[in-house]
Design brief:
The chain is of the alpha/beta class. Helix content is about 40%, strand content about 15%.
Length: about 450
């Protein structure tokens, strides 16, 4: 195990080294290679927004630079070799920003936010950008025609974000969709769905911002990358806030996610920690809103579907015919690569048995046209010592536990993280969406048999 320090460097004239701590391995993350362009798609994102009439603030640029540090660190340092317990890493980042004094005030909430999201120990520091990079944000023209957008929503290529976009468009909104371009499967899904929405709503002036940020050619010496993507939503939210700051008015960034997956209550006693993602958990979103307030970015993040199951989102979609035709093209699977190596697997990107796939199957029960590697859950007994049966058995455990004592829901919703920011009424609503979500899973798992081999 090693502690790691990642520090951003703005060109060859910037600092070559940041003082490291005891046992730290130090790695620079270059941001300027040539022509003063800020790498990792930051300058490209600024240019793309300028074409849309949006000019992000300098603090929002700082946020995207911070997100690059978080994303690079999270995805390039293996948990298997760089932690004492196989999970918790000790990570330090030092970020060049426009106003170090302002950003230093955000460190307590920022570290709390990151540690909740990824399960690691984060130490965050800030320093001033070097001379010549005091201003990166593009100045708006003297006569600025405001952008046409009256709505800002994340667009991941998943079913929930697709429903969110359709609902906004059906209600006459003009959203800017913000995407993080992931691997090929995710990008293809995003492009197909965006093109389909463009054809269906030809009179709308809605558009999309894509942020790549893939760090090709960069690595941490002697360390393997990490395949888990627990920290990805920090980049996703940062890209949305970055875009929203260019609207010129107070903005709301919508993060469409069903309440069951947003809570992500551990399904059994072994699922605390590494198995419970927290990308849209209420506590995480509350800390984001606190962070934006501290650094003076005039926006907030909301999940408009926090009290809806995925099945309810599908059934209540404002355009039932459109969602029925596009649902199978959306992307939900946590690990699409499983279907690529599985011998004899069909041509499917969805495995059919991970947690997101199971919730997806439950939401589309009776109308699901998605091809799955494991197409029929009831075809045979699923082995709980293998991936195909582990998630199913965990859901069966959770369903049986609630069936025996429904009042447990009000206790269990607190397991994945604090709900101290939520009112008593909202906590009751969260417990209820958890119960309704499990009921949807119960229906799709009826007759499915599981046992250890």
């Amino acid at each position: 195990m090693k502690r790691h320090l990642i520090f951003g460097r703005f060109g060859t004239g910037d600092v070559d080294h940041i003082a490291d701590g005891d046992g730290e391995q130090t790695t620079p993350l270059p941001f300027v290679v040539a022509n003063r362009r800020i790498e990792h798609d930051i300058t490209d994102a600024l240019d793309a927004l300028a074409k849309l009439g949006a000019y992000p603030s300098e603090r929002a640029v700082d946020l995207l630079v911070l997100a690059a540090h978080v994303q690079a660190t999270d995805t390039h340092i293996s948990r298997d070799t760089e932690s004492q317990d196989g999970w918790t890493r000790e990570l330090r980042i030092v970020v060049p920003v426009s106003d170090p004094f302002l950003w230093t005030a955000s460190i307590p909430v920022l570290q709390r936010l990151l540690e909740f999201l990824t399960g690691d120990r984060w130490t965050v520091g800030f320093r001033a950008r070097p001379q010549g990079f005091e201003q990166i944000a593009l100045p708006p023209p003297a006569k600025l025609i405001p952008p046409p957008f009256d709505c800002l929503t994340l667009f991941s290529g998943g079913l929930d974000s697709l429903i969110g976009s359709i609902d906004f468009l059906e209600h006459g909104k003009t959203p800017l969709l913000v995407s993080h371009a992931g691997d090929g499967t995710v990008s293809q899904s995003q492009k197909f769905l965006y093109d389909s929405l463009s054809k269906h709503y030809p009179k709308s002036k809605f558009d999309r911002l894509r942020v790549w940020m893939d760090f090709r050619g960069w690595s941490v010496a002697g360390v393997m990358p990490d395949k888990k993507t627990r920290g990805r939503s920090f980049l996703f939210f940062s890209a949305g806030v970055f875009a929203g700051s260019g609207f010129g008015d107070p903005f709301t960034l919508y993060a469409p996610e069903n309440g069951l997956i947003a809570l992500n209550v551990p399904l059994d006693p072994l699922r605390l920690g590494s198995f419970s993602t927290r990308t849209t958990h209420p506590f995480y979103i509350a800390r984001w809103n606190e962070l934006l307030q501290v650094v003076g970015i005039n926006g907030r993040i909301e999940n408009p579907y926090w009290n809806r199951t995925k099945g309810e989102m599908v059934r209540e979609c404002a355009n039932p015919e459109l969602i029925a035709s596009l649902a199978s093209k959306s992307f939900s699977c946590a690990s699409p690569n499983k279907s690529r190596w599985k011998k004899g697997a069909p041509a499917a990107e969805h495995c059919g048995f991970c947690l997101p796939c199971l919730i997806r199957r439950a939401s589309l029960l009776g109308a699901d046209q998605t091809p799955y590697t494991l197409d029929d859950l009831s075809a045979g007994e699923l082995d709980t010592t293998k991936a195909e049966g582990q998630q199913v058995r965990s859901f069966q455990f959770a369903i049986n536990r609630i069936r025996e004592n429904r009042s447990l829901a009000r206790l269990l919703i607190h397991k994945p993280g604090p709900l101290s920011d939520e009112s008593a009424a909202r906590q009751d609503a969260l417990a209820d969406v958890y119960l309704r979500g499990l009921a949807e899973l119960d229906a799709v798992l009826a007759g499915v048999r599981t046992a250890p081999a």
